[in-house]
TrEMBL record, chain A:
It comes from Paenibacillus methanolicus. Pfam families: BPD_transp_1. This is Putative aldouronate transport system permease protein. The chain crosses the membrane at residues 12-38, 76-97, 117-140, 146-167, 188-213, 264-283. The keyword GTP-binding does not apply. Its main location: membrane. InterPro entries: MetI-like (IPR000515), MetI-like_sf (IPR035906). SUPFAM superfamilies: MetI-like (SSF161098). The lineage of its organism: Bacteria, Bacillati, Bacillota, Bacilli, Bacillales. GO terms for biological process: transmembrane transport. Keywords: Cell membrane, Membrane, Transmembrane, Transmembrane helix, Transport.
TrEMBL record, chain B:
The keyword Signal applies. This is Putative aldouronate transport system substrate-binding protein. Residues 1-27 form the signal peptide. It comes from the Bacteria. Residues 32-61 are annotated as: Disordered. Pfam families: DUF3502.
From TrEMBL, chain C:
Residues 74-291 form the ABC transmembrane type-1 domain. Belongs to the binding-protein-dependent transport system permease family. Coiled coil: none annotated. It is found in: Cell membrane. This is Putative aldouronate transport system permease protein. One of its GO terms (biological process) is transmembrane transport. PANTHER family: BLL4140 PROTEIN. Keywords: Cell membrane, Membrane, Transmembrane, Transmembrane helix, Transport. GO terms for cellular component: plasma membrane. InterPro entries: MetI-like (IPR000515), MetI-like_sf (IPR035906), UgpAE/MalFG_permease (IPR050809). The chain crosses the membrane at residues 78-102, 114-134, 161-187, 208-232, 278-295. Gene3D superfamilies: MetI-like (1.10.3720.10). It is a multi-pass membrane protein.
C-alpha cells in the first residue's frame, strides 16, 4: 500500500475522480429536499399556504417548534421511553437474530432449510391486523404495556435471512476446528462468530434500532395510556391534534390562532431525525472498529 | 445409563417443544373461535336487559355503582378530565354511575374503531355515525339492538322527544342500533367569495351559478398572483363539486355508484346521471372553467388546504356547508374586514334535504355489561340541561358563558375545551343546543329557519337503508371506476365527450346494471311497504 | 428405539435451543394470527368471530376481478418492483463500492450520513416535496424550465413521465440505506485478497471487478431474493402519496395496493382486503418458489431455503 502512494497511478486517479464526483452528486440530491424541509419547518404557515416552501423562508417563524415543545415534560418522557425501548430492544433483537442466523447457515445442520423456510414463510403470508390485535389484546393482554412495544418489532425475519447470508462469508473451518477442540455450539457462536461479524451486527443493529425508533404503528394499535407514548407516536398525535383543532375551529366558529400544519410536519421530521443524524457517525465508527478487530482475528 | 438419561432428556426437550408449539397454536385458535361463538349463541340483549314492562325510571335499581366506558372520536381536549369530573358528580348522584372516556384520534379511528369490536374490548357507549362505521358495525353485530321497551324504560325523555324520523333512519335491517342525535342540520353546499374583488371588477352581486362562474373567470383572467378557486374535490364520492349540481335536486343512494333520483319524487326511479344531458352540460361547464384556469391544472393532486388558502387570500372563493362558511366568514371579518366576504347560496330556490339524524349518534356495545345504565346516562346527557351544557360547552365561567337562554359566548379558556369540540355530537339535541352569539351564529340560525320554511323536502327514502350484501363487490369496483375515470372529467382534464363513453363502458363492466337493478328493487319494495 | 429423528434432535440440541427464541416469536406473533387468512373466504361478523363467521366462498375476490383492471394493476406492480430491484441494486452496489474507495474519512462519513437522510422522510412529506417541485403553476422544475426558455411540462397529466419519477424517488429514498448493507459486506472482505491482487498487478477496476463484486454476490443475492419475494406487493406509501387520486396517471402508476385502497376506503370490508392480500401472497409464494428453485440449482448456498 505504502509503495503505491508514491506514484499516482492512472487507474486509481480515474476511480477517485469518478467516486468523489458521483458520491458528491448523490449526496447533494439526497440532502436538498432535507434542507427544503428544514426551511419549511421555520417558515410561517401562511407563507407555506401562499407560496409553498423554500430553502430560505421570507417570514421566519418558530411556531411549529413551539407547538411541538409546548409540553416539554411530555416530550422528554417520550424521548426517554423511545431511547430505552431502542436500547433494550436492539440488543435483545440483535442477539436473537444473529443467533438464529448463525444456526440456519450452519452447513452441518441438516434442518437448516426447513427452518429457513419456516422463517421465510411469514414474510409471504400474514393473517392481517384483526387476529394480531385479538391475540395481543384478548389473549396476551399486552395492550398498554411496555412489553408490547418491546416485543412486536423484535424479530424481523428479513434480518435473520440477511444475517444468515453475511455469516456465510465466515469460513466454516472456524466452527469445525473449534468443535474438534470440544467447544459447544453456543460457546462457538459467542466467542468466535460474533466478534467476526461486527460489521454485519452494526448494520443490522442500525436497522433494528431505526425500526424501534421510528415505530408509531404498534403504539397506535396498542397504547392508549399517555404515559406510554413513544416519541414518534407522541408527535403523530400532535399532527392529529392540529387537524382536530382545525375541524373544531370550523365547527365552533372560534378564531383559532395560526396553527402550523405543513410546517409542523416538517418540524416533526427534523425533531425525529436530528438525534439519529448525530448518532450515525458513532455507529459508523463502530463499523470501522469492528472491521479492524475482525481483520486481526481473521 | 448416563447416556440413556441424557437421551431421554433430549427427547423430552424435543417433544416438549413440539407440544408447546401445538398447544400455543391450538389454544389461541380454539379460544378465539369458542369465545366468540358463545357470545353469538345468546343474543346479547336477551338476559342482560330484561326490562319489566311496568318499571318506571324511578323504580330502576341503581344501587350498584357502575363505571360506564364511553368511546368518542377526535383528540381529547386538555380540560376534558375536569369537565367530566363535574359530569360524573352529577351522574353519580342521579344514577350512581360515572363515565370513563376514551378518545380515538382522527388519524387513528379508521383503524381502531373496527378493532375495538373485533377484539370485543370492554366499553359500553361509543360514538356511531353514518360516516363512521354505523351500518357496517351494526350489520356485523357490533351494537346492541335497542328495543322499544328498553328505550321507553331507560331513556324515557329521549323516547318521548326524539323526532320519530330519527329512529327510522337509525334502523338497519329493521332494528335500531343507535340513539341518533336530534338536531336540524343541512349539508347544502354554498360558496363564500371576496366581495372586494367583485366590486373591483364591477360585477353584479353573485346570485347564480352563472354569476359565480363569471366572477371566477374574471378573477382568473385579471388577478395574476391568485388562484381563483380550489376546484373540485380530490376524491369522488357523489359529485365532486356539489355547488354546481344543487339545482338539479338529485340524491344518491350510495356515493360509490353514479345513480341518482329526484329528491321530490314519491316513487323514486334511479338512473345513471351520465345519461342525463343536464349533467353533461354541467360537466362541460366544469371543463370550460378548467380551461380558463379557474383552478390549478393539477388541482386533482393538490395538497393545499383550500379553506386555509382562502383565509390567507390565495383564492377568491371557497365552498362548503353553511356551518363551515359561517365560521370562515367570522374569521375573515376579524382578520381582513376589507375583503368583504359574502356567503352565497347559488341556488336559493332549489330544494334541499336535511342531514339525516343518524349522521351523529351513540351506540351501545353488544357485549356491554350495563346497557340499562348506559341508556340512562345517555338520556341525561341529552336532556339534562346542566349535563348537556357541560359536555357540549364545558365549565360555565371557565370555557363559556350563557347569553340568554339559547345563546352562548366563548371565553378565552375555551381552547381547553372548545365548544362542541369534544365530540358531544352523538347527543346533540334540539332545544338544548345553543347558538353562538354574533354574526355567524345569527346567519346560521336565520338561514336554517328560511330553509326549513321554503326549501327543505323530506325524502320519500329518508328512512331507506340500502342492503348492500349482494352488491358489495360491484360497489367497490364502481367506486374505483368513478375515481379513476370520472374524477379527471370533473377536473376538466379530460373532455366530457371523449371521456364519458369510456367511463360508461367501465361502469358497465363493473356491474352498474346489476347495482341499479338491485337498488331499484329494494326501493320499490320499500315504497310498497311504506306507502 | 433410536430413530434417526430422535438422534438428530439429540445432536442438534444446542442449535435448536439457539433457534428457540426467534422460533417462538414467529409462532406466536406470525403463525398464530395466520388463522386470519380464512377471513379472505369469510363473511366476517364481530359476533361470530374469525373462525365462526359464515363461509363466503370466493365472493370476497369478486370486486377485484370484475373491475377490469386486474391485469393492469398486477402488471404495474410487478414491473415497478422489477425496475426498483434492478436499479436499486446497481445504484446501491455502485455507491457502496465508490464509498469504499474514498480515502478521506470525513468526506466518507459526511456523504454517507447525507445519503441516509431520505430514509427518514416519510412518504407523506416526500409527496408534498414532489408536488412543490413538479406542479404546473409554481413548481420549481417548471420555474427553472421557464427561466431556460423551455415550455413548462404538466407532469400531473403526463402518465409517461411517471415511471421515471417513481423509480427516481424510490431509488433516492433507498440508496443510502441499501448501500449500508453492501458497505458492511465490503468491509468484511479479507484485506489480504486486495493486497494479493495489487501484487499481481491488477489495476483498480480489475480489483473491483474480480474481488469486490464477487465478494458482494451473497449479499446481492439475498437482498434481491427477499425483494423478489415481495414482487406482487406495491409500496402503498410511495404510490399513494406521489400520485394521489389522479386518475389520469393510473394507467402508468396504479398498483394493486392503491387499487384496493380506492375500492375499499369507504366500504372497509375486512374480508375483501384480506382476499386481495391473499391473492398477492399466493402469487409471491409461487414466484419465490420458482426463483428459489432456480437459484438452488445453480448456487445451492445462495438460496433462501
Amino acid at each position: 500500500m505504502n509503495a503505491n502512494n508514491k506514484k499516482i497511478r492512472m487507474d486509481q486517479l480515474v476511480l477517485a475522480v469518478v467516486s468523489y464526483s458521483w458520491v458528491t452528486l448523490v449526496a447533494v440530491i439526497c440532502v436538498l429536499p432535507f434542507l427544503l424541509i428544514l426551511g419549511g419547518s421555520f417558515t410561517k404557515e401562511s407563507e407555506i399556504v401562499l407560496e409553498g416552501f423554500k430553502l430560505i423562508p421570507k417570514q421566519f417563524s418558530l411556531d411549529a417548534y413551539r407547538f411541538i415543545f409546548e409540553y416539554p415534560e411530555d416530550i422528554i418522557r417520550a424521548y426517554g421511553l423511545t431511547v430505552s425501548l431502542t436500547a433494550i430492544g436492539t440488543s435483545l433483537s440483535l442477539f436473537f437474530i444473529s443467533m438464529s442466523g448463525y444456526v440456519i447457515q450452519r452447513t452441518d445442520f441438516k434442518w437448516r432449510n426447513i427452518f429457513s423456510f419456516i422463517f421465510y414463510f411469514t414474510t409471504l403470508f400474514s393473517g392481517g391486523l384483526v387476529p394480531l390485535y385479538i391475540l395481543v389484546v384478548n389473549y396476551l393482554k399486552l395492550n398498554n404495556t411496555f412489553w408490547v412495544l418491546l416485543l412486536l418489532p423484535m424479530i424481523n425475519v428479513f434480518y435473520i435471512l440477511v444475517m444468515k447470508s453475511f455469516m456465510r462469508s465466515i469460513p466454516a473451518a472456524i466452527t469445525e476446528s473449534a468443535k474438534i477442540d470440544g467447544a459447544g455450539d453456543f460457546t462457538i457462536f459467542i466467542r468466535l462468530i460474533l466478534p467476526l461479524c461486527k460489521p454485519a451486527l452494526a448494520t443490522i443493529g442500525l436497522f433494528v434500532a431505526l425500526a424501534y425508533w421510528n415505530d408509531w404503528y404498534y403504539s397506535l394499535l396498542f397504547i392508549s395510556d399517555q404515559k406510554l407514548y413513544p416519541l414518534q407516536y407522541y408527535l403523530y398525535k400532535i399532527i392529529g391534534n392540529v387537524d382536530a383543532l382545525k375541524i373544531v375551529a370550523e365547527k365552533s366558529g372560534n378564531k383559532v390562532p395560526d396553527l402550523p400544519g405543513e410546517g409542523l410536519k416538517m418540524a416533526l421530521t427534523m425533531v425525529v431525525t436530528g438525534p439519529i443524524i448525530f448518532l450515525y457517525p458513532f455507529i459508523q465508527r463502530y463499523f470501522v472498529k469492528g472491521l479492524t478487530i475482525g481483520a486481526v482475528k481473521g | 445409563m448416563k447416556d440413556r438419561t441424557r437421551l431421554k432428556k433430549k427427547a423430552w426437550l424435543g417433544v416438549m417443544l413440539l407440544l408447546l408449539i401445538s398447544m400455543l397454536v391450538s389454544a389461541c385458535s380454539g379460544n378465539s373461535g369458542n369465545g366468540n361463538q358463545e357470545e353469538s349463541a345468546s343474543p346479547p340483549a336477551a338476559e342482560t336487559t330484561e326490562p319489566s314492562a311496568n318499571a318506571s325510571p324511578e323504580g330502576i335499581d341503581t344501587s350498584e355503582p357502575v363505571t360506564l366506558k364511553m368511546v368518542l372520536l377526535g383528540s381529547k381536549p386538555t380540560d376534558t378530565d375536569d369537565v367530566y369530573a363535574e359530569v360524573n358528580k352529577i351522574l353519580k348522584e342521579k344514577i350512581n354511575a360515572t363515565i370513563e372516556l376514551r378518545y380515538l384520534d382522527w388519524n387513528e379511528y379508521n383503524q381502531k374503531y373496527p378493532l375495538l369490536f373485533a377484539a370485543n374490548e370492554d366499553f359500553d357507549l361509543i360514538f356511531a355515525s353514518s360516516w363512521a362505521f354505523y351500518q357496517p358495525t351494526a350489520r356485523k353485530d357490533g351494537f346492541l339492538e335497542l328495543t322499544e321497551d328498553m328505550l321507553k324504560t331507560y331513556a324515557p325523555a329521549t323516547w318521548a322527544q326524539q323526532d320519530p324520523l330519527g329512529w327510522e333512519q337509525a334502523k338497519v335491517d329493521g332494528k335500531i342500533y343507535m340513539v341518533p342525535s336530534d338536531y336540524f342540520e343541512s349539508g347544502h353546499g354554498m360558496v363564500i367569495l371576496r366581495g372586494d374583488l367583485r366590486e373591483k371588477y364591477n360585477l353584479p352581486e353573485v346570485k347564480s351559478q352563472a354569476d359565480f362562474v363569471k366572477f371566477l373567470s374574471t378573477v382568473a383572467k385579471n388577478e395574476k398572483g391568485m388562484t381563483a378557486f380550489g376546484g373540485p374535490s380530490t376524491s369522488l364520492n357523489g359529485v365532486a363539486l356539489p355547488i354546481m349540481f344543487n339545482d338539479l335536486e338529485r340524491v344518491f343512494v350510495h356515493g360509490s355508484a353514479p345513480l341518482v333520483y329526484d329528491m321530490k319524487s314519491e316513487h323514486p326511479k334511479l338512473y345513471n346521471y351520465l345519461d342525463d344531458s343536464k349533467y353533461i352540460e354541467k360537466l362541460n361547464t366544469l371543463y370550460d372553467m378548467a380551461q380558463q384556469g379557474i383552478w390549478p391544472k393539477d388541482a386533482i393532486v393538490s395538497k393545499t388546504d383550500w379553506a386555509a388558502a382562502f383565509k390567507e387570500g390565495k383564492t377568491a372563493a371557497h365552498h362548503g356547508n353553511l356551518l363551515t362558511l359561517a365560521a370562515t366568514m367570522e374569521a375573515i371579518t376579524l382578520a381582513h374586514p376589507e375583503w368583504k366576504p359574502e356567503v352565497i347560496d347559488l341556488v336559493p330556490d332549489a330544494k334541499r334535504i336535511r342531514a339525516p339524524f343518524h349522521s351523529n349518534g351513540i351506540g351501545i356495545h353488544a357485549t356491554s355489561k350495563h346497557p340499562e345504565r348506559a341508556l340512562m346516562a345517555l338520556d341525561l346527557l341529552r336532556h339534562d340541561k346542566e349535563l348537556f351544557d357541560l359536555t357540549t360547552y364545558g365549565i360555565k365561567g371557565k370555557h363559556w358563558e350563557p347569553v340568554g337562554d339559547g345563546k352562548y359566548r366563548s371565553l378565552p379558556g375555551s381552547t381547553g375545551y372548545p365548544p362542541d369540540g369534544a365530540c358531544p355530537w352523538g347527543w346533540r339535541t334540539q332545544g338544548m343546543y345553543r347558538q353562538l352569539e354574533g354574526a355567524a351564529g345569527d346567519l346560521l340560525a336565520s338561514t336554517y329557519d328560511k330553509w326549513k320554511k321554503n326549501n327543505i323536502v323530506d325524502l320519500k327514502l329518508a328512512t331507506f337503508v340500502l342492503d348492500d350484501a349482494n352488491i358489495k363487490n360491484e360497489l367497490a369496483a364502481l367506486a374505483n371506476v368513478q375515481k379513476t375515470y370520472l374524477l379527471p372529467i370533473y377536473h376538466g382534464l379530460v373532455k366530457p365527450e371523449d371521456g364519458i363513453p369510456e367511463v360508461q363502458e367501465k361502469l358497465k363492466q363493473a356491474g352498474i346494471d346489476k347495482v341499479q337493478a338491485e337498488m331499484q328493487k329494494q326501493i320499490d319494495a320499500f315504497v310498497q311497504s311504506n306507502p | 428405539m433410536k430413530t434417526p429423528f430422535l438422534r438428530d434432535l439429540h445432536r442438534y440440541k444446542t442449535l435448536l435451543l439457539m433457534l428457540l427464541p426467534a422460533l417462538l416469536f414467529v409462532l406466536l406473533f406470525q403463525y398464530t394470527p395466520m388463522l386470519g387468512l380464512v377471513l379472505a373466504f369469510k363473511e366476517y361478523t364481530y359476533a361470530k368471530g374469525i373462525l365462526g363467521s359464515d363461509w363466503a366462498g370466493i365472493d370476497n375476490f369478486r370486486f377485484f376481478f370484475i373491475s377490469g383492471d386486474v391485469w393492469r394493476v398486477t402488471r404495474n406492480t410487478v414491473l415497478y418492483n422489477a425496475a426498483f430491484i434492478v436499479i436499486n441494486l446497481v445504484l446501491q452496489v455502485g455507491i457502496a463500492v465508490m464509498l469504499s474507495e474514498i480515502r478521506s474519512r470525513w468526506f466518507k462519513k459526511i456523504s454517507q450520513s447525507l445519503m441516509f437522510l431520505p430514509f427518514f422522510i416519510s412518504w407523506v412529506v416526500v409527496g408534498t416535496i414532489a408536488y412543490n417541485l413538479l406542479n404546473y403553476e409554481h413548481g420549481t422544475v417548471n420555474t427553472l424550465f421557464g427561466a431556460a426558455g423551455i415550455d413548462p411540462v404538466n407532469f400531473y397529466s403526463t402518465p409517461g413521465v411517471w415511471p421515471f419519477l417513481l423509480v427516481f424517488f424510490n431509488a433516492w429514498k433507498a440508496v443510502g440505506y441499501g448501500a449500508v448493507f453492501y458497505l458492511a459486506a465490503i468491509m468484511s472482505i479479507d484485506q489480504e485478497m486486495f493486497e494479493a491482487a495489487e501484487t499481481d498487478g491488477a489495476n483498480a477496476f480489475q480489483r473491483i471487478w474480480y474481488i469486490t463484486i464477487p465478494c458482494l454476490k451473497p449479499t446481492m443475492m439475498i437482498l434481491t431474493l427477499l425483494a423478489v419475494g415481495q414482487i406482487f406487493r406495491g409500496d402503498f406509501g410511495l404510490f399513494f402519496n406521489m400520485v394521489g387520486g389522479n386518475g389520469l396517471l393510473f394507467s402508468a402508476t396504479d398498483v394493486i395496493d392503491t387499487f384496493v385502497y380506492r375500492s375499499l376506503v369507504e366500504n372497509n370490508e375486512i374480508g375483501m382486503s384480506a382476499a386481495i392480500d391473499f391473492y398477492q401472497s399466493v402469487l409471491c409464494f409461487v414466484t419465490i418458489l420458482l426463483v428459489n428453485g432456480i437459484v438452488r440449482r445453480t448456487d445451492k448456498d445462495s438460496a433462501l431455503f
